[in-house]
């Protein structure tokens, strides 16, 4: 029972986090805006526990800052830092793809193909949230396929910090189609056991995400 309760809290926290992320990126919540747990709990009709968890997730991603005895507030959107993080992410994920092309088993390659096939229908239907979930699973499969635990940990840590940015760049016109195509390039290179091509394809994919998000935020401002 405790596990089910924790899962429900996590789900509600994710929902709250996504709403606040959308309001930050759209400009509804400006830098410096206080995020009061009690007010948010009343707004969403929930206890303060999932609200507190959502705020902690936002703090971890850098969208919110929290100081002792000062509460939480929306952080300034530091595009320069975000782009620097994407630069590092592109190299780390590129290495994951390189090693995956050399080390993935036949079963792992089949599973990666299945994820890409699943994302096709979601892309066509413009189901952004569902597509992002499968997109995340695709990247995670590449991490695991590297068979390098240290690299996997680094990739997962940065992915978590960049998750809000990676999710919202999919709102850019035609970006979901481009993302699907870029995944196809990564997949083809891994299936062909071509490390150089896999690394280059993944690096391009992650770098484009940074460029698209920077443009997207600039337009919204």
What does this structure look like?
This protein has 221 residues and is mainly alpha-helical. The protein contains nine helices and three strands; from the N terminus they run H-E-H-H-E-E-H-H-H-H-H-H. The radius of gyration is 18 Å and the shape is elongated.
Show the helix and strand layout.
Layout: H1 2-26, E1 34-35, H2 37-44, H3 48-61, E2 64-67, E3 71-74, H4 79-103, H5 106-124, H6 128-145, H7 149-168, H8 175-191, H9 195-220
Antiparallel strand pairs: 1-3, 2-3
Helix pairs in contact: 1-3, 2-3, 4-6, 4-7, 4-8, 4-9, 5-6, 5-8, 6-7, 8-9
N-to-C SSE string, H for helix and E for strand: HEHHEEHHHHHH
Looking at CATH, which topology of the largest domain would you report? Four Helix Bundle (Hemerythrin (Met), subunit A)
Instruction: Summarize the main sheet.
Output: 3 strands, antiparallel
The CATH fourth-level homologous superfamily of the largest domain: GntR ligand-binding domain-like
Give Rg in angstroms: 18 Å
Q: Kindly, what is the distance between the CA atoms of the first and last residues, rounded to a whole number of angstroms?
A: 45 Å
What's the structural domain tally?
Answer: 2
């Amino acid at each position: 029972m405790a596990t089910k309760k924790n899962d429900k809290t996590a789900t509600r926290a994710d929902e709250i986090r996504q709403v606040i992320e959308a309001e930050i990126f759209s400009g509804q919540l400006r830098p410096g805006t206080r995020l009061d747990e009690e007010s948010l709990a009343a707004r969403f009709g929930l206890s303060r526990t999932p609200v507190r968890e959502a705020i902690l997730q936002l703090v971890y991603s850098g969208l919110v800052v929290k100081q002792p005895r000062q509460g939480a507030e929306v952080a300034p959107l530091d595009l320069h830092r975000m782009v620097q993080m994407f630069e590092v992410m592109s190299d780390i994920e590129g290495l994951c793809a390189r090693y995956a092309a050399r080390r993935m088993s036949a079963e792992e390659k089949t599973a990666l193909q299945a994820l890409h096939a699943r994302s096709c229908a979601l892309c066509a239907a413009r189901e952004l949230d569902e597509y992002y979930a499968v997109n995340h699973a695709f990247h995670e499969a590449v991490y695991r396929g590297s068979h390098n635990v240290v690299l996997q940990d680094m990739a997962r840590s940065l992915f978590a910090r960049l998750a809000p940015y990676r999710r919202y760049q999919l709102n850019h016109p035609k970006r979901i189609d481009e993302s699907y195509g870029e995944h196809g390039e990564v997949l083809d290179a891994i299936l062909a056991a071509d490390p150089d091509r896999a690394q280059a394809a993944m690096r391009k994919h992650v770098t484009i995400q940074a460029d698209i998000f920077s443009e997207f935020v600039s337009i919204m401002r």
